[in-house]
Amino acid sequence: MGTTEIHEEGVRTLRVPSPPGSHMKNVLVTLVGEGPYILIDTGYPESVDEVVAWVREETGGSLDALLLTHHHHDHLGGAEGVVAATGAATWAHPVEIELMKERAPALAPAPLDDGEIVRLGEIELKVVLTPGHSPGHLSFWWQEKKILFGGDNVLMETSTWVGPPRGSLREYLASLEVERALAPRVIYPGHGSPIKDPEGRIEGLVRHRARREGQVLDALATGVDTPEEMAASIYKGLGEKTMKIGAAMLAGHLEKLIEEGRARREGERYLLVE
Asked: What φ, ψ does residue 219 adopt, rounded to 5°?
């Protein structure tokens, strides 16, 4: 069963445990406002009944809008059920809308793009395009309260998964700087704990990626030339599942180096550019 957390006036979350086999411990479904109400993301498909019941209890049965940060199943999975139960108007980025069709064919979100404003009652959320984790990933900025609803871009307990084919580390790092420039008071993420020191956490994530890039460059310089071989060294002893996730993340670093002209690819091998 999920846990309700009231963070401050107008912001509450349902912390839903992830299904067995997931690499994240939980996903957060966020309810914004005191009426009208905005829901940000819907969790896994396995938890849709619980999310619908929670929304009805918290809102008195009236949900006005659903904002989807991106198309991944742990954020989109319950969307069709939530919309069917509440009739909420739904929005997402155009790129993500296309990607959602495979998992939620009955869903028909309206498009939202960078800089647009979602207005409901006294709430104004600015749409902030923050690609990297997903090509059309959206965050939502509540300027009045200095709150950023950040989806998966800034997480407290772990780093964000960024890897090919749809993730871009170069775009992700640029998105972190966009979020840093907003100077939020707090970030409410899609997983884990609220980030109460956004500047410190963002700086930590940037430095973490820089350190990892250094490890990748060192590996290439010594002839370790595939993401799997790098993962076996960098994530040594952390288990097969972590190795697979790590290899995908390292591929993201390697693709960034290719985009910057510092590496090239030959088949499955990556090589430094002399």
From this structure: -65, -45
Kindly state the tokens that stand for 167. Answer: 């993730």
Q: List C-alpha distances in Å: 204 to 52, 100, 143, 186, 187.
A: 36, 32, 24, 16, 15
Task: Supply angle C-alpha 204, 207, 210, rounded to 5.
Answer: 155
CB 228 within 8 Å of CB 245: no
- Residue 186 reports pLDDT greater than 90: yes
pLDDT in tens, 187-217: 999 999 999 999 999 999 999 999 999 999 9
Residue 23 has phi, psi (to 5 degrees) of -85, -10
**Annotated domain spans of the chain:** 3-196, 209-272
- Determine whether domain 3-196 maps to CATH 3.40.50.450: no
Closest CA to 256 of 132, 136, 128: 132
Task: Name the more confident of 240 and 166.
Answer: 166
The answer to pTM > 0.85 is yes
- For residue 174, what pLDDT is reported? 98
- Identify which of 166, 161, 169, 133 has the alpha carbon closest to the alpha carbon of residue 257: 169
Tokens 């952390």, residue located = 238
How many Cβ atoms sit within 10 Å of the Cβ of residue 45? 17
Segment 74-130, tens digit of pLDDT: 999 999 999 999 999 999 999 999 999 999 999 999 999 999 999 999 999 999 999
Give the angle subtended at the CA of 145 by the CAs of 141 and 149, to the nearest 5°. Answer: 35
Q: Which residues, 6+ apart, have CB-to-CB distance to 211 below 8 Å?
A: none
Given pLDDT bands bounded at 50, 70 and 90, which one contains residue 1? confident
Distance between CA atoms of residues 71 and 90, nearest Å: 13
State whether residue 124 is helix, strand or coil: strand
